[in-house]
# Entry
Amino acid sequence: MKIKDCKFSGIKAGIKKDKFDLGLIYFTEPSTCVAAFTKNLLKSNSIIVSERHLKKTGHIRCIIANSGCANTACGNDGIDITEQICKVLAEKLNLLPEEVLVASTGVIGEPLPKEKILSNLDHLISSLGTGKGKIFNFARAIMTTDTKPKVVYKSLKMKSQKGNILCIAKGAGMIAPDLCLNKQHATMLVFLLTDFLLCREQMEQLMQHIIVPTFNSFSIDGDTSPNDTIFFVTTNISNNVIVKDKEFKELVEHFKIVCEEIVWKLLSDGEGVTKVIKIIIKNSESKNAEKIAKTIANSLLVKTAFHGADPNWGRILSCCGRSNANIDINKINIWIGKHQVVKNGTSNFVKDSLVRKEMKKKFFEIIIDAGNTYCKNLPYSFFTTDLSKEYVEINSQYKT
Amino acid sequence: MKIKDCKFSGIKAGIKKDKFDLGLIYFTEPSTCVAAFTKNLLKSNSIIVSERHLKKTGHIRCIIANSGCANTACGNDGIDITEQICKVLAEKLNLLPEEVLVASTGVIGEPLPKEKILSNLDHLISSLGTGKGKIFNFARAIMTTDTKPKVVYKSLKMKSQKGNILCIAKGAGMIAPDLCLNKQHATMLVFLLTDFLLCREQMEQLMQHIIVPTFNSFSIDGDTSPNDTIFFVTTNISNNVIVKDKEFKELVEHFKIVCEEIVWKLLSDGEGVTKVIKIIIKNSESKNAEKIAKTIANSLLVKTAFHGADPNWGRILSCCGRSNANIDINKINIWIGKHQVVKNGTSNFVKDSLVRKEMKKKFFEIIIDAGNTYCKNLPYSFFTTDLSKEYVEINSQYKT
# Structure
């Protein structure tokens, strides 16, 4: 498990009580980063500073990340404190401050514990290393309500070169990513690293067409956070297109698989989640499809019915009706697994027991045919989870 | 407790197991009805038939209502069955079918049990009567997950006349009314009756400016039902404006109070609700105010924090940021009760313990000043509730 020219560390800096809470990714050579941030107007100071740094320089050298504090809405000096930390870290590593990026996750409104972070930088740097253990220490340092560190790794041999893709992520609640390339987005943090030789244009293509859409296609609780960040970094930049068309297409597929695998890890470790549901909208313009899918994905009544395997499909049909999508409700067909529960907008009189059996699975699909057969779009997919008492338990006492 | 020329009954018709489930309001004289229905594209057959009847005739004579079945998406003959029930009921009461209105609430997708209803019509009619007992029997017949019948009554003496206002309602889940005058809307059912002398124009004014806005200003779970209905009826119609300006204004206030009282009953009896929160948006255009208020009102993270009295105000500020409202996040000020937790978009460093004390109350206010001081609108108010494990419990097993 490695990325060329890339070292990791994760330590306990005392931001949280006796837990990993501060992490560092250090690139031994200048590396290229393409970033996507939350669209939430409320932005973490970490995002504001990272954006500023990315504008100043064409390459980066390290990313410092913390859990236990969102570094958001925490006083007027929040940006200054963040810049100071970058500056001290840069001096210690003999870098420019703008070669440092920052990511944070935790409670909004509490100031970043500057002294704790500064006094632990030496320890953080001396802990840098390669290998699975160091990578998992970093993954642990960014966990909040996550129960497991989330890492996906692929080592690949292509025709013209071999290389590695590594993705480290966190996020269990406040998850409804709505990321925008080079704009701000909430507490999903994604570090997607590679040592494949890529040019910036290809990185941007990957980000726009594969990475951002994949991370925007799921919701745990419908709450888009002010901290959501994807940093996509290659340690192996090229000024020209070296990896050619056919091989790039193959690489695109591998990146897609890595992103999908990490999304799956995020979903299944979501706060109080006991099952994952894929919503597929067919025969619909993409705008309508998105409205229908997100209304279903975020409906409390649907999510609680999923939880109890309650075959109450009327709630799904009702979501179609209130989604503001431009649809003919009498043309809607709905399947839960292989069972068609709605035919032309009304009951297909399937036995509840059959549907319940399907809904008891840890994963199942809902297919909505919106009936617009003139529309030649590919089906639109969106993932959601159930809503359990444990989610309520976790989130009614988060700060307490 | 009475409305002139108006009788009530509620019986156990066997739609549900040994519970009141069928109700009738009978007007001994032709009465005038103004209606508002859900905006959900999925419509109950009861709404489709009621709309049809209201278009045919200038007056109505009775309203039949049931719980235990939403009469929605329950087969292609659903409208026919509903019309048949109206026809038989009309014959028995010597009325025209179009003088009958219908309202239903319960599970979507199950056919209306026609035989049970038809065979109980004689019993329903013979049970008609006046007085508190009969009114509460009707109120019981429309309950689903409601734990209490909801009735508000005012007997008023104005300068030129005396009269009565009676409001009977139900609704505990699938509650985010989005009603539209003479359009369709979900399972909140409201029967607002009066014997004050009014003309149709005044009724429509009341509906548009007081009744619909009041019932659209709260959410329990963000799910707008396909059955939401308000029937506003006077047994005392006038062709001309009789109640003059000043007295009408006074009457408007009384109607407003009655609607607000019943909304309060709906909120506090919401599924699993332990507290009610009023969200007030100041210094904001109404469109932005509505976006902010509804994003906060329907956020799982905010609602669970309310439940646990968790002073996690960052979630409220984050909702402002992701609401799609056109705001300057650095001008946002937020109060929880009397405590200002956010000042100009960042923490005001109030002690958590003070805020927690406020949030432990059964009712408290959140004030958001959106900072648009050029805007001279009145503050926008919206009510919401907390989200408890009991809500999850109720709704994961609703149909099971």
About this structure: The longest strand of chain B covers residues 22-38. Chain B touches chain A through 72 residues (CB under 8 Å).
